[in-house]
Amino acid sequence: MFWDSLHATSKLNALESRWTVEALTNAAPETLEAHTAGGSLTLQMNHLLVGRDYTLQTSSDLASWHDAQTFTASAGTNEVSQTLETGTRSAFYRLQWQP
Predict the structure, then answer these.
(1) Contact 59, 47 (CB under 8 A)
(2) What string of DSSP letters covers the chain?
(3) Residues 36, 42: Cα–Cα separation, whole Å
(4) pLDDT confidence band for 63 (50 / 70 / 90)
(5) CATH number of the domain at 29-98, out of 2.60.40.1920, 1.20.1740.10, 2.40.50.100, 1.10.1060.10?
(6) What is the pLDDT of residue 67?
């Protein structure tokens, strides 16, 4: 792994480079954006890690959460559209990922 006590071999340098690229690639946190139009809610999930399992959850009081949808990301961005229920005062959403 080292030529001498100070200098790494090209294989070690390549390994360190790959680890750095993987760490930087996965550094952008997932985001969840909500847009409403004409009684419809569109949730856009960005920076998803392809192949990772996610669960979109909803709550009306931030205390109890319910699974709305579970999916495996096949792209970095995913959208979900829902019809807003009449009389709903507020709704909260969060995105969880499964390790």
Answers:
(1) no
(2) -BSSSS-B-HHHHHHHHHHHHHHHHT-SPPEEEEEEETTEEEEEEESPPTT-EEEEEEESSSSS-EEEEEEE-SSS-EEEEEEPPTT----EEEEEEE-
(3) 6
(4) very high
(5) 2.60.40.1920
(6) 94
